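debug: dumping io for the single-chain case to check the tokenizer round-trip. Nothing else runs in this session.
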Amino acid sequence: MMLVWWIAIAVALYVLASLRVLKQYENGVVLTLGRYTGTRLPGLRLVFPVFQTMMRVDMRLLTIDIPKQQVMTEDNVPTSVNGVMFVRVKEAQTAVLQVQDYKLAITNFAETALRDVIGSMPLDAVLAEREKIGDKIRDIVVKETKGWGLAVDHIKLQDIEVPDDLKRLMSRQAAAEREKRATVIKAEGDRMAAANLAKAAEVMGKQKGAMQLRTLQTIDGLGPTASNTVVLAVPVELMEAVNALVKKK
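debug: decoded output
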């Protein structure tokens, strides 16, 4: 009788030791005597010790860093680039059984693809086309990791660093470009102002009394300040009389 009780207690303890709880975002890959026998879904599950082992797999979106590395661009400029990769496990059993360490493996593929893509582009394109570079790296990684049970959502470049002397050169170049644009804009404004002044002078020359009105407007615009003194060396009427006499001759 005592033996039966001891056996019952041992069985109960064994069953209790076999209980596993999988969280909502986890799947469990179960091996029985070394062979794959199924994938456990979230909830309370039985995994019998000694005979079975279970590997938990996180099914959430994973953020994997691509370490910073030195890359030579197509125009022989050394750059330091790092990035981030967003990966999701689609099939837990495939990711566990087909790859020893899928996080490490996909990171190595991403590093190699990053060097290949940036090495085939000049520096200006690398700085201007980050999103396109990320898409190219993603396409390469997806192709190379096909059959691993993974889904690569996005790959983004984070930092692109160039040598300090090149940074100073690029800063001077940008300043020169801004100065060039400012000069062109100022010249265009001067041209438009000169054209408008010429049209205004033509209109004023055709309208009688326009010059006197413009003179009065100019004087009125000076304001009532006592320090403003206006001296008209030649009356406007006299200038008009001279102009009329010249036209008659």
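debug: round-trip ok. The domain at 62-162 is CATH 3.30.479.30 (Tetrahydropterin Synthase; Chain A).
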